[in-house]
Design a protein that fits this description.
Low-confidence stretches: 1-12, 33-85, 102-108, 246-250, 406-433, 435-440
Strand content: 15-25%
CATH class of the largest domain: Alpha Beta
Distance between the termini: 42 Å
Helix content: 40-55%
Structural class: alpha/beta
CATH architecture of the largest domain: 3-Layer(aba) Sandwich
Amino acid sequence: MQGGEEARSETYLAVRCNDERSHSWFERELRSRKLGGGSEGGRAPLRGKPSPQMGLFQQPVYVIIVLGGPLHSWVGQFPVTMTGFRPDELILFLQNLFDRSVRRLRLGAPPSRNRRRLLIVQIDGLSRSVLEEALSRRRMPFLKHLLGRHRYRVLPMSVGLPTSTPAFQIAAMYGVRPNIPAFHYYDKRSRTDIYFPRGGDALLVEKAHAGGRRGILSGGSAYGCVFTGGAENNLFSFARIQRPSGTGVLRTISAFIVLGWVVLKGSVFTAVELTRAVLRWIANPFSVRGWKWLAIKMGISVWVRELFTLATSRDLYEGVPAVYVNYLDYDVAAHEFGPRHRRAQGALRQIDRSIHQLWRVCRRVTEHQYDLYILSDHGQAATTPYQRVTGKPIEQMLFDELFRPWRGEPSASGPSGKKLIAGVHGYRSGRAPGLFQRFVNYLERDFPWVLGEVREARERSGVRVIAAGPNALVYFLDCEEPVTIDWIDERFPGLVEEISRSRGIGFVLARSSAGPICAWRGKRHSLSDAQAGPFTGREDLALVFQGIRDLMEMPSAGDLIIYGIHAPEGDISFISEWGAHAGPSPDELHTFIISPPGVTLPSPITHPIQLYQHFLTYQNGLRTGP
C-alpha cells in the first residue's frame, strides 16, 4: 500500500512480453484504455483515489510487465484501476488464458492481425419505429451512447416480403432471392410442409438456396439463427437444431469455465425470477399466462441469452473471423404481449446490456479488429388473434363457410370399403353428426399430429390451408405449379372476393398473367399507383408493391395468400399471438442497421440481399481499413 492511502486489497497481474514490440504495444494499450501504465522499472501514479466502497472487481490491479525471461523476474510494477471490470469479464479472461495456452501448445500462432473481422448482432423482431422510441426513452442506454459518442450510424433498411427471419437471413447470408413465403408453408412439388422449428427443414432449405455459394460466416460461428451461413460453429441454429456442428459442440463443451459461469449465473437469475413469480402469484393466483411467460423468460432471456453472450465473447477473444448472434428475447416477448408492451421493452434493456458486454470485449481485443453491426430482420405489428374475432381458426372458417368442393367426394353407396372411406371423409370435413364427430374436431384442433397434420395446417378435398401468422396460405393441390386467379374463378366463382369481405380479413393476394392481384373488401385491384387498394397513401408504396411482386413470384407461395393486416377490425394474426410479422405494414417492413464509423453501406437498402456483398468482403480479406 502507498503511504497515507486508505487500506484496500491489491491484485497482481503478470504479463510476459517476448520482445520490445510486444512490450511497447501492451504499455500503449494500458494508456489508451486509461488503465495507467509506465516504463519498465518505474511506477505510474494511480488515476484517481480508490474508494472504500469499491467492489471486488474495481480494486487497484498492479500490472507487472516482464520483457523476456521467466515470469518470476519481475522488474517493475504498474498500478492500474480496472473500473467497470465485471465478473463475466474475469471468467472470460481466465478462459482466454486457457485458450491461449492450448493454442501455444497445440494450435500454433494466434489469429492473423492483418484483416478486419465481422460481428453481427441481430435483435430479432425490432422495427425502426420501436428502436427510435426505445432510444428516446433511454430503454437502450448503451446503444444511444454508441450512436452519440462513438460515431456509429443507424441507417434505415427495408427487408422485403415476407417480413420473416428465414427470408431475411437466407438473402443476407447467401445473396439470393428467397423462395421462403412464410415461416410455415407447403411445397407442392415435393408435397411436404416446411416448418422451420421442425428438425431438418431449415437445413434442406439452406442447401437448396446456397447452391455452392459462399456464406458470410464461413469459418465462423452462428448463435440462434435459422441458417448457418456456412459457419463451422452452430448453436441453437434451426438448420442444426438436432445436430449442432461438431466443432461448435466441442468448443462449447471445452469452454468449461464459461459454461460453468453461465450455469451459476443462470441459476441465480432463475431463483430471482421464481421468487418474483411466487410473489406475483400470491397477488394474482389465476394468472396462467404469467406462468407461461415465466417459463419463456427463464428459457430465452436468462439461459439462452447469457449462453449466447458468453459464447460470442469467447469467440471474440479467440479471433473467430465472423460471428452472427441472434438475440430472441424481444421477438418472443413481442409475439406474446405485443411489440410495445412493457415486457417487450424490458427485453430490449437486457439485450442492450448484452451488446454492451460484447462491445467491451471488442475493445479489449483491438488486435482482432472487429467491426460491430447491429441490425433487425423484421419488425412486428400489434395484432389481435383471429379466434378472438370469429371464434374459430381461419382454416376451419374457410372449409366450413367458403370452400365448396368442386370435385366429387366418395359416395356413401357401393362396397363397404368405400362407405368407410366416405365416412372418414365426412368426419374430416365436419359434416357427420354425433359424438365421434366432436372427438375428431377436438383432435384436429388440439392434437393435429394424431391425424397426420401439423399445427395450423388443414387439408380437405384437394385444398390445403396453412396459418402462418398474419398470413394464411391456400394451396390447390391438383396442380403442382402455382395457379392463376382465372383458374380459381373457374372452379370457385366469387371465392376471392368473398374471402376478402369476411370478418378478420385484410386483403387477399393472387397471381394473374398481368401480375399480382389484390382483393380488398370485395374489390380487385392491380398493383399500380391508381389502384393501391389497402395501401393508398403509403409513402413507401413502391417498396410495398415490389415486395408483393417478389412474394408472388416465389414458386412455394400459396395460390392465395390471405392477410389479416389492414382488416376492418384492426391488424389480425391467424395464430394466437399479440404481435405478428410477415406482412407489409410499416412496422413490419422497416427496420435498421447500425454500422461502425468509416464503413460505407449500400444506400438505400431496400432488400437484405444488398448486405451480402458487403459482409462477404470480410471473408475475402478485402475489408482491411478502419
